[in-house]
Please model this.
Amino acid sequence: MGDHVLEVSNLTMQFYGIKALDNIGMTISAEEFVGIVGTNGSGKTTFVNVMTGYLTPSSGSVKVLGREIGGLHPFHLTRMGVSRSFQIAQLFLELTVEENLLLSLAARENVYRKVRMPLKTKHYLKEARELMNLFKLEKRANSKCLELPGGDRKVLDIAMAFALRPVLMFLDEPTSGVSTEEKFQIMEILVEALQERGVTVVFIEHDMEIVQKFAHRVLDFDEGKIIADGLPEEVLQN
Amino acid sequence: MDGVLIILMDGVFYAAYLYLVALGLTLIFGVMKILNIAHGSLYGFGAYTGASLVLFYSRQEFWPWGVYLVLIGSAVLVGIILGPIIERGIIRRFYREEVVVPLIATYALFLVLDDVMKLIFGTSPYFAYQPLNLAGNFSFGNISYPVYYLIFISVAVISGFLLWAVMNMTKFGRFVVAVMHDPEISNAMGIKLPRIYLATFTIGAIFAALGGAFTSPMTSVVPGLAVEVIVASFAVVVIGGLGSYSGAAIGALIVGIVRATAVHHFPVMELFMIYLVMAGILIIKPQGLFPIEEERRI
Amino acid sequence: MRPFYTKFFLILGLFVVIGIIVPAWMRYLLTIALCKGIIASGVMLLLKCGLVSFGHALYSAAGAYAVALTVKHLGVREILIIIPVGVAAGILSAAVIGLIVSRYREIFFAMITMAFSMAFYGFLVKAYGLTGGTDGLRIPPPTLFGSALPEGYERFVLYILTLIFVALVAGILHKTERSPFGFLLQGIKGNEVRVSYLGIPVQRAVLRTFIISGCFAGLGGGLLAVNSGHIDPHLSYWTVSGEFVFISLLSGVGNLNFVFIGAILVEFIRSYAFSYVPYLWQMILGGIMLLIIIFSPGGLWQIYNSAADRLKPSLKDSNPGVKHNDS
Model:
């Protein structure tokens, strides 16, 4: 069991009698790169929301890193090493790019309660700088997120999740809203960095080329069920 | 047995009073997402205008029963004059703001209007008992009550019914309901939001003024009456669920009966019973009894 | 950090000098304003994370009554004991109520905090035996280090003492603003979902903020009681809380220490309005409040900042961590 980063069995999620997830079962092993495809409303984001504690499943079991997550809040799961990015970037719009990343680092290092030290210490600024360089955000360091174009917002959103040094990372449409030229560039940077750290990744993606290129395995969602699970070539055939 | 009846009568009466004020408050919140602290001032203006006009009317040799129409008339007058001024002049600026900014803005407005009231009507109390005395008394159990209490309760019930009818049976009402649920889509569908806001605010203002006008015969109208009503009607609206007018009715009844019970049995508790009940209900139902569902997508 | 402390001690010295030269009534007004500033700084902290407490008068009243009751029943008049008692009362009441209110946001937060303060007001009015009802309680002059304050200079000593506490609070506010926790407050205001997904329990952070703000309120309330020598239940009335919200808003959350400037301004406006146009002071306060919200949502801080920008860039406090236009 220990090898499975994620173990889902008989998972059902109902909203007002509608089954957004219908009896799902599957496992994901360490360091896998799993792409999730499917039409809108097929339950992809709901799946991620359940996996990260935003929603509590109606029934079934979800084990993350060997631990049953029923009733755990997103912050618990994040602390356990599960992080995620969002379909619509979730940023602190009034803060600068740098400050967003610094808060991420402060959270990871568990110093977010501190009052006596300043947030902008050399140590953290250095790491924030590295992250911005990695994700090509360095020119935006002191811009408020409010002023960022959509593509940069998405990238920052991912960078904040990445900065937490997760063991398991969910990416909800990481390249939507990013320009076509940059899509592959961003994914390449991200995937390389994630692989280097041995992170297990589950990403939802509409762009089949991206899925083809970066996923080791593809899950196809339809009406809350997984209708196909296999290598990209096999699944994407249909 | 009498004790229970008295509490019920007092409770329902107090509920009617709170309901009239809370009705406008919750309507305005439902449509514009603004909790209008200045609503209490509209109540105050209603009371002062009602009392002044009743006094004036009573000095003439007119048909005496006309005082009730004078009360209604003064409420409408206050509503259609002050409502648009406040909505166009101040409230309109804050529709796009986060919730707390309009709250503070209406608090500021409340402070201003409180002094405007003193400037217009002075600081000495008004006594306009004519509508109360005219209707006489009736016996309820062993207690004699003014018939005016029943008139007052009817005004509240009819107001609630009228609002319900407008919301459910007219095109305007359907527009308002659409705006409540999704202003952006309503706007895209061609509903003119500014007009809906203006109309809703004016209607809400009229209800508040109606509450004030019909309360004025039963008390002396003095400065500071706006403060008393606003906090209690907040409690009503929050208990009922912000934006829900059936909730406001239930909230008013709960607060009314709780208060009446406290007044008769635990007078020491009177002042804070309402707030304890409100806090208690919110601890069990964090959004109030009949919350309006809101979705959040991530 | 250096320039801050230079400025800090300069301003502190200035206040001491002001305390020596101004007439006694003005110094008294200043003392009261500073106490209210301490209370309002708690409201500011909450405002920074997007929460409006319309019931903060409760925690300051708790501090004030704790002081008064300690003096009355235990006969302790030592200021270095009774002020900490006030602080403890503020912390305790904020911790208990914070457990409940930290679940709420926006309007609900404002209304529930208000409800609790009004319930407390009702309690203070009705619990005559304990609180003296609407008559309130008298607080005799305190002692310092066990001895009575020097005759003729009581008020001045109290002013200096208040000033020391203000300096303490100002230092804490300054540090907080730049700390991870200070930024977290802005984060909570900005996006709670993201905060949770950084692994931070939002509710606990709000509770913590609430308790800190209760601590300041208790301190301010205790000092208010000692300085004014008399307290009554009105201290917990919702319009008093409204005044603290007003002070915070006027000052602007962009720089927490502006709260003291805001508090002084409000106290003086009120005092002058009371003597020249007694029926219009609410209108003046409300009018200023509306003007601020409409034209300068960042408060005095924003006005100061843009003026400094225009005059001389070097005049501006060059702290990158502080936003210009928080609203």
Notes: The first strand of chain A starts at residue 4 and ends at 15. The beta strands of chain A are 4-15, 18-29, 33-38, 59-64, 67-68, 82-84, 168-172, 200-204, 217-222, 225-230. Residues 4-91+148-237 of chain A form a domain with the Rossmann fold fold (CATH 3.40.50.300). DSSP finds eight helices and ten strands in chain A.
